[in-house]
TrEMBL record:
The keyword Nucleus does not apply. Keywords: Membrane, Transmembrane, Transmembrane helix. The keyword Cell inner membrane does not apply. The lineage of its organism: Bacteria, Pseudomonadati, Pseudomonadota, Betaproteobacteria, Burkholderiales. GO terms for cellular component: membrane. This is EAL domain-containing protein. Coiled coil: none annotated. Residues 23-276 form the EAL domain. One of its GO terms (biological process) is signal transduction.
Length: 277
């Protein structure tokens, strides 16, 4: 399932059948990358749309490969999910986020960080304990962390997902539904899961200025979320016009290239200073 493009970059191609040497070697490359700390934490700012205040950031992984250079998550996360390796990656990302978050708190900066979970993470019975241990190590409250889950990850095995999410929620983590609107037609899970946040998929947000249907979908989703008592976040905010539209609709938070692209930690901290200035 893994192949190499002309550039030598390892890409995941679900169309190609595998059991091959190649997917084995990609898995061993991923393991080595973890040992060598080649997975880098990138942060994309999340803002309050009414006040422009920075709420925090979403953690997004980048693989900085010694020879192949910079590899984006879409090129290895799907493969990491099929092999279960993604659980190691999730733990690694939470660890980096927790360390940074607690370090910032000692300097008086209180930010919320979002970490992406995959379907595989939700199947892992040990996950809540693993996460608890990491937070203890950094003496960090789980309320500083929002865990983002896609609808399709929940639908893989709804009963087990519910069990894991209930436990994480009881520990104090905030939970968000990612890519909302792209997954399943059933909304039933919204009433049984301990969800705090709906994140409207960027495919609806990016073109909402030109496309009336997209705008209506966004508006309805904001209302749906608010009627259920949830916080609503829009991703893919690429212009000031879209920010204003979202604010008019009462959308709570936004994230997108207009405010800031995903960036390494030091650049994020610089961005934070200049945004606040
Ligand atoms: P996602 O969780 O939906 O993350 C949002 C993606 O949208 C990011 O892509 C981000 O760079 C991009 N984005 C943000 N604002 C804009 C915008 O204004 N315009 C456009 N066109 N795009 C925008 P990225 O970083 O390439 O990540 C892709 C996906 O890979 C993520 O989608 C997530 O599903 C997965 N991913 C990334 N990091 C992790 C991770 O640490 N763990 C797991 N399990 N998945 C991850
Ligand atoms: Ca996300
Ligand atoms: Ca998303
Ligand atoms: Ca996505």
């Amino acid at each position: 399932t893994a192949k190499r493009k002309g550039s030598g970059v390892v890409v995941y191609d679900p169309a190609i059948d595998k059991t091959s040497q190649e997917s084995l070697s990609l898995l061993s490359e991923l393991r080595r990358a973890l040992e060598r700390d080649e997975f880098m934490l990138y942060l994309q700012p999340k803002l309050d749309l009414a006040s422009g205040e920075v709420i925090g950031a979403e953690a997004l992984v980048r693989w900085v490969h010694p020879e192949k250079g910079f590899i984006g998550p879409d090129n290895f996360i799907p493969f990491a999910e099929t092999t279960g390796f993604v659980r190691m990656l999730t733990t690694c990302m939470l660890e980096k986020v927790a360390r940074l978050c607690s370090e910032l708190q000692t300097r008086g900066t209180y930010l919320k960080f979002s970490v992406n979970l995959s379907a595989r993470d939700l199947m892992d019975q040990e996950l809540p304990a693993t996460f608890g241990a990491i937070l203890n190590r950094y003496m960090l409250s789980p309320t500083a962390i929002c865990l983002e889950i896609t609808e399709s990850a929940i639908m893989d095995d709804p009963a087990r997902a519910q069990n894991t999410l209930d436990r994480l929620s009881r520990m104090g983590f905030a939970l968000g539904i990612d890519d909302f609107g792209t997954g399943y037609s059933s909304l039933a899970y919204l009433k049984s899961l301990p969800v705090d946040e709906l994140k409207i998929d960027k495919s609806f947000v990016m073109k909402m200025e030109q496309d009336q249907d997209d705008a209506k979908i966004v508006r309805s989703t904001v209302d749906l979320g608010h009627n259920l008592g949830l916080r609503v976040v829009a991703e893919g905010v690429e212009s000031e016009a879209v920010w204003f539209l979202l604010r008019q609709m009462g959308c709570d938070q936004g994230q997108g290239y207009f405010m800031g692209k995903p960036m390494p930690v030091d650049r994020f901290l610089e961005w934070l200073q200049s945004w606040r200035a």
